[in-house]
UniProtKB/TrEMBL annotation:
Pfam families associated with the record: ABC_tran
Annotated ranges, domain ABC transporter: 3-246
Protein name: ABC transporter ATP-binding protein
CDD domains, per the entry: ABC_Iron-Siderophores_B12_Hemin
Top-level taxon in the UniProt lineage: Bacteria
UniProt keyword annotation of Phosphoprotein present: no
Xref: PANTHER family: ABC TRANSPORTER ATP-BINDING PROTEIN, HEMIN IMPORT ATP-BINDING PROTEIN HMUV
Listed GO MF terms: ATP binding; ATP hydrolysis activity
Keywords: ATP-binding, Nucleotide-binding
Length: 345
């Protein structure tokens, strides 16, 4: 399969004052296949934006070579580059007195003549790009009057209007609410599959990336880059390593980070279905660890069905208590913790 993008031994960073460069990440050898949808993940400040800007030819690599569709990036003229790769940066949302259609039309620049006048084909592509990101209704609105999320969509439509086979996006979901983030990821993934576009996007949305990317590029705080399919990287503990922190633990069964458990007591929990899941989460939130049946926990919580709802029975050395709601259960347990902390019996 041909490669849409290939980086060999690339170091990225910034020219320092004098001769020393500030290297952010080095020795990066990585590629993006045609039609592949890849998410770039990594903790704050590891160099995701720097890498995206470098791969897009907006800043020079400190060393190494970058090829786009088998051509050295350095050999491309600005117009050839604009036909080969489009970029969406979060810090470049459009301002000013333009309507959204005009901003998307700017994406046609590499395809129009020197007058910039739009042919029928250009107009069709602009319409298609607006529809593809669900922004058809925004076309005649002034960009200065759009929300950040709406302007983000317009910038993505502009990149689509540019009609490149390679699209690089830096945190395109940053301003979107959860349903819009899911929609956008799905749209981009479908575009890569249906239109054969190669898409690389950086994101902090780990869960969405795990669920939608064909492959992940994982940049760690030592500047190392690990790539692989999401499930293999998660299972092998690579994601946990890249985001290691004293505040969170990676839960390999849930495929998510959870807050580091500073458990004040252990309980056993008996129940099933969604109510069991949410009871478990509520207990974890107030610092109770749910142990297995074999654990030495002295508190046993049983969830029982009652009519359309549930009640919670708590058995311990102090006797048995019944709580009519999850809220009451938590109040009861917090009362116990408080008494224990004050040495009361
Ligand atoms: N113009 C610049 N000049 C010098 N250093 C910079 C410049 N821009 C960014 N940096 C530094 O480069 C490093 C990587 O920054 P970058 O923005 O690429 O990280 P990131 O992974 O995208 O972070 P985040 O997840 O917070 O967006 C940081 O230490 C940052 O301070």
């Amino acid at each position: 399969m041909s490669l849409a993008l290939e980086a060999v031994s690339v170091s990225v960073g910034y020219e320092g004052k004098g001769t020393t460069a500030r290297v952010v990440a080095s020795g990066l050898t990585v590629s993006l296949k045609a039609g592949e949808f890849v998410c770039l993940l990594g903790p704050n400040g590891v160099g995701k934006s720097t890498l995206i800007r470098t791969l897009a030819g907006m800043q020079k690599p400190i060393s190494g070579s970058i090829r786009i569709a088998d051509t050295d990036l350095k050999a491309l003229s600005p117009k050839q580059k604009a036909r080969a790769v489009s970029v969406v940066l979060t810090d470049s949302l459009p301002q000013g007195m333009f309507d959204a259609y005009s901003v998307v039309a700017l994406g046609r620049h590499p395809h129009t003549g020197w007058t910039g006048s739009l042919a029928e084909r250009d107009r069709q592509r602009i319409e298609w790009a607006l529809q593809a990101v669900g922004a058809g209704g925004l076309a005649r609105r002034q960009v200065s009057e759009l929300s950040d999320g709406e302007r983000q969509k317009i910038m993505i439509a502009r990149a689509l209007a540019q009609e490149t086979k390679l699209i690089l996006l830096d945190e395109p979901t940053a301003f979107l609410d959860l349903p819009r983030r899911v929609e956008l990821m799905r749209t981009l993934r479908d575009l890569s599959r249906n239109e054969g576009l190669s898409i690389l996007l950086s994101t902090h949305d780990l869960d969405l990336a795990l669920r939608s990317a064909d492959r992940l590029w994982l940049l760690d705080s030592e500047g190392g880059l690990t790539t692989g399919i999401p499930e293999e990287l998660a299972y092998a503990g690579e994601i946990a390593n890249a985001f290691r922190s004293s505040e969170v633990d990676w839960d390999n069964e849930q495929g998510a980070f959870k807050m580091h458990n500073r458990a004040c007591a252990s309980v056993t929990l008996h129940g099933s279905g969604a109510i069991e899941v949410w009871t478990r989460r509520a207990l974890a939130r107030i610092g109770y660890e749910v142990g297995s049946e074999k654990s030495e926990s002295k508190i046993r919580i049983q969830i029982e069905a009652r009519g359309n709802g549930f009640f919670w029975k708590v058995e311990s050395e102090e006797g048995s208590e019944r709580f009519e709601s999850l809220h009451e259960l938590l109040q009861g347990l917090l009362g116990r913790s408080h008494q224990a902390a004050n040495g009361e019996t």
